[in-house]
Amino acid sequence: MAVFRNDQVDFSFASEVALGGYFAPLEATIENVGPFSGALTADVSPGSRTITVDGDTMNDLAAGVYVIIGNDVATNAGADDATLNSEIRRVVSFTGAGTSTGIITLHAPLGYPHKDNCTVKEVNITSGVLENLGISQDAEGAVTMDHIRFTPGVWESIEAPDPSYEFEGRYFLGSESKRAFYTAFKGQQSFSGTLSNMELINGFPLKFPIGKVATKGEDAASNKGGSVTGAAVSAGDYFVLVDAATDYLDDEFIQVGASDSGLEEVRKITQIDLNTESSTKDRIWVDYPFLIAHAAGIACNQVVAPFTHRIIETVELSPITWQIKNNDSAGTSANAWLRRYIGGKIGQATLTAEEGGTLRMSWESAPFIDVQHNQYDSSAVTAPNNKYDASLSAVTVEYSNTEPYFFSQGSITLFGVEFARITNFTININNNLEPRYFIRNDGSQRTPSDIYEGRREYSMTATVVLPDSAAAATDTTRTLFKELLAEGDYGSGTAGFDVDLVFTRGANDTLAINIPANNVAGASVAAAVGGNAQGAFIRSANTSVGTENPVSTEVDILFRNLSCEVVDSEPVYP
Q1: What pTM value is reported for the model?
Q2: pLDDT digits (tens, 9 = 90+) for 421-442
Q3: Does the residue 140 lie in any domain?
Q4: Distance CA 131, CA 461 (A)
Q5: Which residue has the higher pLDDT, 239 or 570?
Q6: Could you tell me which residues come within 8 angstroms of residue 65 by beta carbon, excluding any fewer than 6 positions away?
Q7: Strand partners, 53
Q8: Where in the sequence is the domain holding 272, given as residue range(s)?
Q9: Same domain, 325 and 304
Q10: What is the three-state SS of 81-138?
Q11: Cα–Cα dist 271/281, whole Å
């Protein structure tokens, strides 16, 4: 008998532009368009749970049906800011019964931006491929967009953020229940998961507990340039309008945004619609939605590998979608159990390595705002409490054969001294996230309204084996002890010191962590006296006497910020 096995689980993730606004792949057959058809009355941003529509009578709608938003090419034909971003949501409730205008409340926030007058149609969902909806197709006729396709590394275990319920027993006087509670009331729902001890094969996981990523490539020899023409690129769009004279081609890489601006993104071109709006514009479709807004006139350029990814701190963390697919041992696709966790943030994370091992990361705390699944929509559990989503679909997960970063490929420099005898280190990140539950009537059913970042806390520990007592070019033993006594004060005030961790797998293949954080353009920044300028501080460096030799010191370091720079062949960091 086929059973679900842990060694046949697929895990993937993607970024969200707004909390809970997932990039849904469109691969379910949507046929027999339902009785309702309308259009948006205003632009709608990612993260919105409600849309205002006009068109057919609102009486044609019903709670529990599904609508597809943004699916009609003809609606915005010829408009500079046309958007074909398409996604499916379930109707939780609506207003305007008996009229042609109303507000629809959706079961999950929108992932893409949608323009005024974009179509909204009721659809019936079965299985297969998209049909007869006018969605733009590439040369092969493919319409599936597997945006939730990335893996964070070679992972070992996941604590799934399935819902946890705060039931509260109530004890009423005078009941027949004696000392037992009389009844139980529903309380808040919470969702928190962990992804432990994954081997890094790139810098994908580093972004989420830190902030955002800016990616630039090397200029291509063909030097195709141009600029964003007509409408700006909204975060969540997966196309850009560019001057047609630039002659970009499918499968090339386009960089939108000037290098070292902190706003640049690289995407692979999947399709080009020539002269879609005029003789001076191409609509260039890319393989993953843009995560940063780009104003009209921003420079574009063709780039090639290697790609440089700078991971930069932000006040608000990038939200994330997780998807877990449990396959049965027979590989029967119809039996696949899909769970999609939306509106997540990485609260706590650790980055660690030790002698003889690899560089590993753990997402220690990841709260979410909700979950969806594809299991039977039991009539005994009313929507949306049952979390069932008929539009949920599997994705083709991208797996990599890239080698991990080995501990032996690393170097650690503290206060200008490279420590060759470090046996292990751990960097701890804590964002002190707090899910909040606000009063609202949007169909979210006691789930978190938002997740707020608290104070950011960093620390680092390392084990340092002390060198021979004979003086060398750098006397590490004495230097470490003196740094402990100095307390980060070198005569002009408390500045702290610099920390640099670098892992080198080969040419144009590095991962670097810089403390204090480098600036937006990637230029090195040194620790300095004053607020928002200090580097790292040794809190303790205990050199105990025991039975193990040679002598080692356990170093505990505090610091206030960091940045990462990864150079590799990956064009898109989700």
Answers
A1: 0.92
A2: 899 999 999 999 999 998 877 6
A3: no
A4: 56
A5: 570
A6: 34, 36, 90, 91, 122
A7: 40, 102
A8: 211-313
A9: no
A10: CCCCCCEEEEEEEECCCCCCEEEEEECCCCCCCECCCCEEEEEEECCCCCCCCCCCCC
A11: 14
